[in-house]
Write a structure and sequence with these properties.
Layout: E1 9-14, E2 17-21, E3 33-36, H1 51-74, E4 80-92, E5 95-109, H2 115-128, H3 130-134, E6 138-141, E7 144-147
Length: 148
């Protein structure tokens, strides 16, 4: 596979806040988002996406998109997928690090007989997620399978 590049532009607006956009996304639909220092830091701003939120979101959204591809290839029938995530930031040896991401995926299937397959697809998805494989943070997955 050829290398792919994903462009993101950040522009400072005021205080500890900026705007992040990608020239590859349709800017006419205002796909830009405000980003800021989180309120846990001096002069941080509540209510804005922070690098820490985006880091956690990258792992979470990668799990979902990987799950969707593997589920399709595995012919897993499911009626819903959702995932809560929590990024843990700590100070380690004088540096701030995102040390762990906890993923709590929830998948709904129609019959108990598909539980093993759903669990296997989730495990494969976590192992194959390119974002998880690109970072040094610990990834913990706590899946839930529902029958509906």
């Amino acid at each position: 596979m050829e290398p792919h590049f994903f462009n993101v532009d950040v522009n400072w607006k005021k205080d500890r806040m900026g705007v992040m956009c990608s020239p590859e996304l349709n800017l006419e639909t205002n796909n830009c988002i405000e980003i800021a220092t989180p309120p846990e830091f001096p002069k941080g701003m509540p209510g804005k996406w922070s690098p820490e939120h985006l880091f956690t979101a990258a792992v979470n959204s990668c799990l979902m998109t990987t799950f969707l591809a593997i589920a399709e290839n595995s012919k897993l029938e499911f009626s819903s997928f959702s995932c809560k995530s929590k990024g843990k930031m700590e100070r380690v040896e004088g540096k701030y690090l995102m040390t762990e991401i906890v993923l709590e995926p929830s998948v709904t299937i129609s019959d108990e007989q598909y539980r093993g397959k759903a669990e296997k697809v989730l495990q494969k998805s976590e192992a194959a997620c390119l974002i998880s494989n690109s970072i040094k943070s610990k990834i913990t997955m706590v899946p839930t399978i529902h029958i509906a």
